[in-house]
Design a protein that fits this description.
432 residues; alpha/beta; UDP-n-acetylglucosamine1-carboxyvinyl-transferase, Chain; 4-stranded mixed sheet; 24 strands; 25% strand; binds ligand EPZ
Amino acid sequence: MGTYIVQGGRRIEGEFQVRGGKNSALPILSACILAEDEVVLENLPLIRDVLQTLDILRELGCKVTLTGRTAVIDSSFLQKTEVGNETVRKMRSSILFLGALLGRAKQVKISYPGGCAIGSRPIDLHLASFQRMGVEIQEENCVLDCKREKIAGAVIQLPFPSVGATENVMLLAAKAEGVTMIRNAAREPEIVALARFLRAMGAEIYGEGTGSILVEGVSRLHGAYYSIPADRIEGGTFLCAAAMTGGELFLRGLEREQMGAVLEVLRTCGCRFLWEESDLLWMKPPKELKSDFTIVTGPFPAFPTDMQPLMMSLLTLAKGNCMISETVFEARFSQGAELCRMGADIRISGENAYICGVKSLHGAEVFAHDLRCGAALLCAALAAEGESIIHGSEYVERGYEKIEDAFSFLGGNIRLREERKPYVQKEIEKNE
Ligand code: EPZ
């Protein structure tokens, strides 16, 4: 539990190495279970969700060592095939363990993941796909009891290109008997990263990055060495912070083909970009950001939903009117009300948000309701006049490694005040 204290008005500028991507790392960590000997993963982001996932691997009986950003994971001693409520409640992406564990065991039990602040987050597409591949699923007291004799390759037609469902099917199909074809598969860069990792472990997988992914199951997957690609959403976050504060920024590590939709919107706001080297992106924002356009979020390569809160934050300071339509999650505008407390002019109506740019924002005490909401409020606070207090650092720490140090390194005035739990505080006062 912690609170960010931000003194706004300083430029976010300079050069920054983007860290490894959360949404690439999490499915890849689950996939390690499929390897019957050692895996080495480099460039892991040291964020709460990754550290928690490493703990889950340890709970399942895997040998896990973490040195810096490099993890060595040996799943040959896998013992447990149950993922409990406490774990899944803390981190819903642990549903990705289901596909990987079923690749190693005939029976797996996992608690039903709940929704979160941005929506109900159902897993019906995951489960329907698994049943088509021969998995029997019984639900009792919110626990999914999954059994399979063998895993049968199948044609999986996804009604929506769900990232998680695509990933879970890839994990299950990697060791199926026969061929699995995923139609209307998600095309996100994180899918491509997972496919490359599975291939490094010996999987026969083709078509990642397109809407049709073919997986020819193999009987065994071996260890591999892999480096987690840079986080396109962290990169977009820093671009927004720099653009809102008038800073010139160099970002290292991003892949050009992943940034198209985000850079297109920022260019329309008046930002200039240059790819100085294959992975060095330069950005210079205009004196005054401008808007007067509509953004519609959608599956890759459309504008990413994870960047929607950050772009809303930026548009509060862009001259003009803008509409954002959030088509992926049903409740992802929680940052709107908090930004209004800082002087923004935002009206929410269903899946649409209408933003009318204002001259400036002022500091305020605000609350992060989820990961990207918290990041959006940090960007606004860095650009606002005066001091802001942002509660809920635990959400931001799920997806950004020490973001307060990163923004300080780039010129921001920001610190994190750790809030000790009351009982801890009492203990400390007692012993002082
Ligand atoms: C992944 O979530 C990411 N999380 C999300 O990032 C990201 O916003 C999302 O993909 C979309 O890009 C991780 O990779 C850990 P979906 P996921 O399945 O897999 C509905 C962040 O901030 N749906 O593509 O859960 C679902 O309700 C996080 O880093 C079903 O209806 O996304 C949602 O409306 C937030 N049934 C839509 O599809 C299902 O079985 C997109 O979900 C599955 C999904």
